[in-house]
Amino acid sequence: MSDSASDAVSFLPLGNAPQSSAIGLYARATAGFDARLDETRALLREAHAQYGDGLLQSSSLGAEDMVITALLAELQLPVAVATLDTGRLHAETLALIPQIRAQYGIEVQVFTPVADAVVHFVKTRGENAMYESLALRKECCGIRKLEPLSRMLAGRSAWITGLRREQSANRAEVPFSEPDGQGRTKLNPLAAWSWADVWYFIQTRAVPYNALHDQFMPSIGCAPCTRAIAVGEDFRAGRWWWEDENAKECGLHKSKSNEELKSGATA
Fold first, then answer.
1. Nearest 5 degrees, angle CA 155-CA 157-CA 158?
2. So where's the catalytic machinery, residue-wise (predicted)?
3. Angle, to 10 degrees, between the axis of helix 63-74 and the axis of helix 96-104?
4. Structurally, how many domains does the chain consist of?
5. Among 1, 45, 55, 251, which residue carries the largest CB count within 10 Å?
6. Which residues are annotated as a binding site?
7. What is the pLDDT of residues 49-73, one digit of tens each?
């Protein structure tokens, strides 16, 4: 596997690696891991010192975000952790919420879409309208993700994400800290980590993770919009796989005004 963050490479093994779990597939110690881990710990400490109660971890409950939650617990940083329940998540994803509570004593705040907006969308567009056009898929993301995100971040001055440069060419230049376009700071403490780093940490710290990662799903979103990837496909190939766009995003990590987020805009 290439170390270049801009390369679209498969995250499945090409050889005969043990395939019983994502840990067996991906976890390995790599050069510089301890330095990257120390850097991430320092970034999280500095963020809490600077932003205090204004800081929040926005967790997708994916592997990267589970690493960050584990580090917050390890460092005993009282940072709020929140997630979006779109109403279309896999059961395996939602199962992590009680696991986080049991293992770390952290209560994950759950933000859901406005029920009336979802009902109206399904009634007028169809339950699986996301397959019909890019515009309808983005409209669905706006209702189920972006609007709840605006409420999640209300009153916060900074938020933590699990973005990494290696995830896609579109994220190859992800900085450790950046303005989010809404007066807040977005922090990406795992920006320099590799996929192997993420799973090595999960393995060595017994971090709970989504069971779907064991089924060749490195990037997991809503159930209708996620499939397993195959050898030769890039990290995010299983997300919105029916679309032709190269940079497939739901809009959560695009800089927007507060009004655009509240309205569910996805452009």
1. 125
2. 250 (nucleophile)
3. 20
4. 1
5. 55
6. 140-141, 222, 225
7. 999 999 999 999 999 999 999 999 9
Angle, vertex CA 45, rays to CA 257 and CA 28, nearest 5: 95
pTM, two decimal places: 0.85
pLDDT in tens, 79-116: 999 999 999 999 999 999 999 999 999 999 999 999 99
Domain assignment of residue 10, yes or no: no
- What residues contact 252, with CB distance under 8 A and at least 6 apart? 145, 146, 149
Q: What is the mean pLDDT of the chain?
A: 87
Tokens of 80: 């709020």
Q: Are 162 and 252 in contact (CB under 8 A)?
A: no
- Residues at the annotated binding site for [4Fe-4S] cluster? 140-141, 222, 225
Question: Within 52-164, where are the H helices?
Answer: 63-74, 91-94, 96-104, 115-125, 134-141, 147-152
Q: Which domain holds residue 169?
A: 22-262
Q: Look at residue 17 and tell me if it is in a domain.
A: no
